[in-house]
User: What shape does this take?
Amino acid sequence: MPKNWREIVSNLLSNAIKFTEKNGQVKLWVDLTSTKNLSNLIITVTDTGIGIPKEKLPLVFDRFYQTDDDGARKSEGTGIGLALTKELVKLLGGEISVKSEVGKGTAFEVRLPVTNAADFRSTTDDLKCSPTDKAAEVASSSKSIIQNGAVAPLLSTSEQILLVVEDNPDVVRYLQSFLPENYRIEVATDGQQGIEKAIQVLPDIIISDVMMPKVDGFQLCDTLKKDERTNHIPIILLTAKADAASRIEGLEHGADEYLTKPFDKEELLVRLRKMVEMRKTLHEHFANGIEQFLIGDRRAPAEDEFIKKLLKVLEDHYADEDFDISELYHALHMSRAQCYRKIRAITGMPVADLLKDFRLQKAKILLATTDLSISQVALDVGYKNLSHFSRSFTSDLA
Assistant: This one.
């Protein structure tokens, strides 16, 4: 059975068992129906559990919805599993419906189209899995896209790392079901693990719950925003507390965005996209800022302490022909991976390109403001080879 089908069946069975008392019955039925032009796989899960009131049936697939304020359902969590199930069914082009009667039980029916459109593969597993299934497997494993055009992709080029800090596995799976495929998703199950993983991988964006074991979302924000290695990372806090005081508290702890549960997935995607756009603006700002820094207008880049430190190191060492990328990492007291990702996140440039661009911008100023020869300028900005300097200067700045 393809992975997404297993996820759907597992969620429906788990939900049925959760709300069926001891000695009750849970049944799974699978059938294949065919018409002239279409075949459907029918998956039905029934239980003899507590049932759902008729007026509340349309709401059972809503995120975080609870059918009851008291009793069994209140103690069983947020209902993300059914919301995720519906997303997976839609992703496969199918439909899901529910029937229920209070005190007698509930029945969920899933109808999935069978396309018989799989390409030939050399392995038995691939022969059983259609292109739709393969695409769905990718989505289930953490990289999925919104296929209806409602929300545009956040990026079209490089992969972004998104760290999800959440102790509820259903919420994690729900986020994974719709986040764009150009995100590599890392997961931490509590705040302390989230801090450690953020420092280790330096994600581009963090989405964190507030209420978590060990370290909560507020403490996570405080820690990461005070750490020079991670203070540039945008953080979105998710919480069930919708009052203004809680929102203000989240922002005071350094959160860049604060969304209340149940959150709307399209709103979350828009906020993620806006964060990416702001980062692109920062990249453009910094690209202009290098030259401004060198000619004395330090207002733009100097607002960030790390940028101050970075440019100070470059200013102190650009003339040293032996000063390379490894020396830069050492001077900034960061590991190679940490320094690379932070500089790339802030400037939009690989470290090697940044060092090269700084030297060439410095050469441009020296050529424009002094009587030094081209050979002397090349030496003064750390170039041993004059022809290499000429090629770089012509191709990059001319």
